[in-house]
Amino acid sequence: MARAADKIRVIAINDAIYPCWFADILHASDKRWWNLHKGVPAFRGLKTSLEITGYHDVRTLKNTGISGYDETPGCIRSGSNGGFQGVHLAAKLGARRIVAVAFDYSDDGARSHWFGPHGPGMDLHSNTENWRKYLRGLTDELGRRKIAVVNATIKSTIDWLPRVDLETEWQA
Length: 172
What we know:
Strand order of the largest sheet: 1-2-3-4
Order of helices and strands: EEHEEEEHEHEH
Number of strands: 8
Number of helices: 4
Structural class: alpha/beta
Radius of gyration: 15 Å
């Protein structure tokens, strides 16, 4: 409803696009994911990746490292996971408040995503300790830039971000 009312913008990461066709951006960093999903031709919003996918409508962002924030146009850091990349991308696109949804970051949630495991050859490097470390560095940097990041994830190991209720957040 908030998206339909033009109150928010949505970046869907990987398979989150399937319940979120209303998203503005679909980001998946891996060429394997794009191939497994045949480029998601039904999605008409902006599509981004960190790898050249071979699909004409997927824009490739330059990966300039794992940690931190890169303000150079067309460049983002990877954080070793898509959630980090989504937060980085939202900040690059001018967001002043970023609401993280489905950021479990627990060891049991790293490979068994809400939709099940990724396809073959994926979910190989799910080091949640590093994910949290990289995300902490990014959110600290964004805080210094006056960009607020809050956590609306029901179950999450990200304990440094302010917790918000998603329904309440989007009604504001």
